[in-house]
Amino acid sequence: MRVEPLLRALADPSRLRIMRLLARMELAVGEIVQVLAQSQPRVSRHVKILCDAGLAERHREGSWVFVRSRLPSANRQAQDGSLAGAAERLLAAAEADDAIFAAQCAADRARLATIREARAARAADYFAAHAAQWDRLRTLLCDPAEVERALCDALGGDLGSLLDIGTGTGRIAELLSGRAAHVTALDKSHDMLALARARLQDLPPERVELVQGDFTALPFADASFDTVTLHQVLHYAQAPERVLAEAARVTRPGGRIAIVDLAPHGWEELRNVHAHARLGFGGEAMRQMLSDVGFVPQTDRALDGGELTIKVWTGTRGALSAPVCRQDAGSSHIPSLSL
Known about the structure:
Elements: H1 3-10, H2 13-22, E1 27-28, H3 29-36, H4 40-52, E2 56-61, E3 64-69, H5 74-77, H6 83-97, H7 99-129, H8 131-139, H9 144-155, E4 160-165, H10 171-176, E5 180-187, H11 190-200, E6 208-212, E7 225-231, H12 240-250, E8 251-262, H13 268-272, H14 283-292, E9 295-303, E10 310-317
Parallel strand pairs: 4-5, 4-7, 5-6, 7-8
Antiparallel strand pairs: 1-3, 2-3, 8-10, 9-10
């Protein structure tokens, strides 16, 4: 980060307002337009200047562009001696000492509350539209709370940097967020990410990131995460071993994986109506797949209570590199059963 572009980027009231908004949560460009009541081309230009200066970053999700701050969080800025830390301290001090700027920030955050409410309302509408489908699935399974308890017990305490693959509605990311230093929630579906964003929007923005991506070609560097979870996701994969190979690639040595999925069953309805590619996984087959990609299998717990049995598998990443498979393996994804 260079000081001249940084100072030029901050030399505009609208960009100052944008940075204070991004300190609260990641926002779509269209949502910033709503808060600032400015045209989209003008807001897009402001966002570009902030990103070029290294103060913010953009990522595309379908037809939407989301923006997040690159400045350190409030609880880290005092120890951060970088230009980014200095910029965040300056913005916080400006809001504390400049009454006019503080009033504008307060008004912007009031509009931001409306955006939060709109996200939650869209999520509620989506759930209502799919309620019958999900209610039918729930009748086949044991109590979701029991599954969540089993997952938490299997993973234990500190999760470090967590990747939730196929996050769906974001329930598992939310459930585990208190144990993780940072949560990355990935899904291929823009609709699912919209639901997850509504669920996770109250988490500090520096602790959560939502990413659109394919579970057969994860958009992350090798050894990026301490913990990886796949909750009711693997049965959508035509080649689950390729998904697990990618999960192994991004897991640090000594890191853990947790898989929640169905035991073998004969419910063809799940294949024909709900797009399941696999009708469950046997214990030995799962342990072999985990071993083949570099995980050491650990727990293997079965949860009855419904017409279908749910299993929880965990494993620890070994030090040896695993094969990486990036071919498209049919990665369509429908909503997670965790609502």
